[in-house]
Design brief:
alpha+beta; 39% helix
Length: 552
């Protein structure tokens, strides 16, 4: 049987009108409790496999806690509580839709998490004072604490999902109250912001969710809403975004073909099959030095549509080549787009650029609706296990080989730093597989180049999701296993040089030097460790070692 991965936004965007039935008549505490028990029983009898990231005992304990609290809670607090129960499974397809918890309205502001913080990306007219400001506090609560408070309500598989799909939960007064960010449920919430070097407060009012003008996380400017972005021009990743689910454009100066696919569903104007046919016909008839495929805004669809694209790329070695094919991922890459990303990793030579995806590599998708009998709230519970990677793969997301994140000024000025990084890529400037290249240089005896390149990797943000420290330490251990003492110490010294504030790096170096009888160097490393982390367990161990040596 072929399952279709449902684009999660279709359920998230369900508005309160869909659930008008449970707003018609107040429920008793017992009726709400019965709904909670119904949800609990349904999960245990039909969806026990969802107990993967949380144990059933821990989930039942939280259900029991909510059950006991219900008599003292307002209806909106109970809806938020039920949403928390489903979100505990941490699979984005398993959720109570956003419209359920936002049925009493949302603040008239759109927030976006850029590399340099959370900014007011869009507002309704009349609130332009706050446009482009950096968020500092929510109702007096520091932003970090406010985010921590609302996170349990979001069905976040990982932090990328929370950035991409969870930030709007911060604009729901009902959630802010239920999660303790605001003391009372009010129609206005004051945000503290920074702009032009000044800190100020601004209150936003509550409006119906249906009045929000937003898609893919960004504001759609219209007669009521304005965006912080300079809308006199449109960058490629936003071009024709409202008109087409996918499009491509050739950049002749760079001989680059840019493709944006923001859904794995068919567009009513052109099927994906027809689009792929047209795309590859263009590829076959044009000179292309760089092929860029952008799924940063792709929240999924029908993953059976992926096959034609993968086959088309594999059949064209002129674009399917490392250094020429760049696949752009991000916080909205989810569901069937994650399947596509897995296949791109498995079968092509693409270099992945951007931010981590919003989905686990192997995940539960395809949700069935479970209607709670009294409130009529619909909870969606996943039933299909998608395993494109090996059965032992537990990675929380797909990480880009080249990490690039947009800052607020980049967005405001229509600068697509992710696309720029792809077009400007040079193998002399960036190593796709850093440790493999360093091992080659080491085996060639080019130790100075190993040090130079190693320091570059340690300090280059494009390697943000690459565990370089761990890779160096693993290589040092491998060399020791093969009896290469000098190589082992060289690599450990490089780790300590690249990460001078790492207590672990200094401890590993010190103990290795001590083991190989290089006691003066070992003493120096232990002393540096004490300076870096004097009160840590490793620091205390170093102190004892130095004290023992001092008595000898």
């Amino acid at each position: 049987m072929k399952f279709i991965l449902k684009y999660v936004m279709l359920t998230i965007l369900i508005t309160s009108s869909t659930f008008s039935a449970f707003s018609q008549q107040a429920l008793t505490a017992q009726q709400w409790q019965d709904d909670l028990r119904y949800l609990q029983k349904t999960v245990h009898t039909r969806y026990p496999f969802l107990f993967k990231k949380i144990k059933k005992e821990a989930w039942d304990a939280q259900v029991a806690e909510l059950y006991g609290q219900i008599p003292d809670l307002a209806d909106h607090e109970i809806r938020v509580g039920l949403t928390r129960m489903v979100s505990l499974f941490k699979y984005g397809h398993s959720q109570i839709p956003f419209g359920t918890v936002a049925q009493q309205g949302v603040l008239n502001v759109n927030l976006y998490h850029f590399e340099d913080g959370i900014f007011v990306e869009g507002v309704q007219k009349g609130d332009e004072k706050a446009l482009g400001a950096k968020l500092v506090k929510v109702a007096g609560v520091p932003i970090a604490d406010a985010l921590k408070a609302i996170k349990p309500v979001v069905p976040a598989e990982n932090d990328a999902y929370f950035k991409g799909y969870g930030l709007r939960f911060l604009t729901v007064p009902a959630i802010l109250h239920a999660q303790g960010v605001i003391p009372n449920l009010t129609e206005e919430v004051t945000l503290t912001m920074e702009k032009d070097g000044k800190t100020f407060d601004h209150s936003f009012k509550t409006i119906p969710l249906s009045e929000v003008s937003r898609s893919y996380g960004f504001t759609n400017p219209n007669g009521q809403w304005v965006s912080a972005r300079n809308t006199s021009e449109t960058p490629l990743y936003l071009k024709q975004l409202q008109e087409r689910l996918y499009f491509f454009e050739y950049l002749p100066a760079a001989k680059t073909l840019y493709v944006r696919q923001s859904s794995v569903f068919n567009d009513e104007k052109e099927s994906l099959s027809d689009f792929y046919t047209r795309l590859f016909a263009f590829v076959d008839s044009h000179e292309i030095d760089t092929f860029v495929y952008d799924v940063r805004l792709n929240g999924g669809g029908d993953n059976s549509n992926n096959k034609q694209l993968i086959k088309g790329i594999m059949a064209r070695p002129k674009i399917n080549k490392e250094g020429r094919f760049f696949y752009m991922i991000g916080r909205n890459t989810f569901s069937a787009a994650q399947n596509l990303t897995n296949e791109i990793e498995n079968y092509t030579e693409a270099i992945l650029v951007g931010e981590p995806t919003a989905e686990n590599k192997n995940f539960y998708g395809d949700a069935r609706g479970v209607r709670l009998p009294n409130s009529k709230i619909a909870a969606y519970l996943s039933f299909a296990w998608w395993q494109d990677q090996g059965p032992g793969n537990t990675e929380e997301w797909t990480t880009p080989q080249m990490a690039v994140t947009m800052g607020f000024d980049d967005y405001k000025n229509n600068k697509d730093v992710v696309l720029e990084a792809a077009i400007k890529y040079s193998e002399t400037d960036f190593m796709v597989a850093p440790m493999e290249r360093l091992k080659e240089l080491f085996e060639e005896g080019n130790y100075e180049e190993v040090k130079k390149r190693g320091m570059q990797v340690a300090n280059d943000r494009r390697y943000a999701y690459y565990d370089f420290q761990g890779a160096l330490a693993a290589e040092a251990f491998r060399l020791l296993q093969f009896g290469d003492t000098e190589g082992n110490i060289f690599m450990l010294e490089l780790v300590a040089e690249c990460y001078p504030e790492s207590a672990g790096a200094l401890y590993n170096l010190a103990t290795s030097l001590e083991q190989h009888k290089q006691l003066d160097k070992a003493k120096e490393a232990y002393q540096r460790l004490v300076q870096v982390a004097p009160d840590s367990p490793l620091g205390n161990s170093a102190k004892k070692k130095l004290a023992t040596w001092g008595k000898q």
